[in-house]
């Protein structure tokens, strides 16, 4: 039994390593679509008033859900294109790596809806940025170079924003929080997607 368990896990790890280039290539359209959604959502508050912490949390949680749904559709399309099962053992491993950080971000969202206070939106943005960075860093172990660095950019930026909020509390407004979401979950994703698109090898065997 233990030998079978070890063999199965070794096979999954081998498959993950073999497909790391493919996973990295598939990230390009996901990053670009997510970036467009993030940038578009950050513009919405200019026309629709979203001025309370609860509305901020609900709005961006819905945006994140839409982006996640779009990412899942793109992954499914890639799986069908390559004639592979969508919910394969390697995919489950990647999802398991992402889940703890994503759950932390969800918990922060729920807490903001239930407990609204001064600078809550700003703190929620920081929590989301750091949690997302941790998720990228965890998933980056299944993808060749770059994604873990991208995750660390989020982690370090989130930590820096904590100090900015303490030093300059006048910046911790909901308006700036919307802009931060647009920058981190919009522009940065677009930039990463463009980079992956133009630097990744086109050879499927890479």
Keywords:
mainly alpha; 206 residues; 0% strand
Mean pLDDT across all amino acids:
80
Note the run of SSEs as H and E.
Answer: HHHHHHH
User: What is the rounded distance between the termini?
Assistant: 34 Å
**How many β strands by DSSP?**
0
- The percent range for helix content is over 70%
The oligomeric state is single chain
Percent range for β-strand residues: under 5%
Broad shape = globular
* Radius of gyration computed on alpha carbons: 18 Å
Describe the sheet with the most strands.
none
Structural class category: mainly alpha
Unreliable stretches covering 5 or more consecutive residues: none
SS field, number of helical segments: 7
Descriptive overview:
The model has no long low-confidence stretch (mean pLDDT 80). Helix 2 (20-43) runs antiparallel to helix 7 (174-199) and helix 3 runs antiparallel to helix 4. This protein has helices spanning 2-18, 20-43, 53-81, 89-114, 120-139, 147-167, 174-199. The protein has 206 residues and is an all-alpha fold.
Write the layout of secondary structure elements.
Blueprint: H1 2-18, H2 20-43, H3 53-81, H4 89-114, H5 120-139, H6 147-167, H7 174-199
Summarize the structure.
By secondary structure, the chain is mostly helical. The chain has helices spanning 2-18, 20-43, 53-81, 89-114, 120-139, 147-167, 174-199. The chain is 79% helix and 0% strand.
């Amino acid at each position: 039994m233990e030998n079978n368990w070890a063999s199965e896990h070794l096979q999954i790890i081998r498959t993950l390593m073999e497909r790391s280039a493919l996973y990295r290539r598939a990230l390009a359209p996901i990053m670009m679509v997510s970036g467009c959604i993030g940038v578009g959502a950050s513009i919405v508050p200019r026309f629709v008033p979203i001025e309370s912490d609860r509305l901020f949390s609900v709005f961006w949680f819905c945006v994140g859900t839409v982006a996640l749904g779009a990412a899942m559709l793109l992954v499914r399309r890639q799986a069908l294109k390559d004639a592979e099962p969508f919910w394969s053992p390697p995919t489950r491993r990647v999802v398991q790596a992402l889940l703890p950080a994503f759950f932390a971000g969800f918990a922060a969202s729920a807490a903001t809806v239930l407990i609204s206070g001064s600078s809550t939106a700003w703190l929620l943005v920081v929590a989301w940025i750091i949690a997302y960075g941790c998720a990228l860093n965890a998933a980056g172990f299944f993808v060749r170079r770059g994604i873990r660095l991208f995750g660390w950019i989020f982690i370090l930026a989130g930590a820096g924003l904590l100090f900015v909020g303490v030093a300059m509390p006048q910046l911790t407004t909901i308006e700036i929080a919307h802009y931060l979401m647009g920058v981190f979950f919009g522009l940065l994703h677009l930039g990463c997607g463009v980079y992956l698109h133009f630097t990744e090898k086109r050879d499927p065997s890479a």
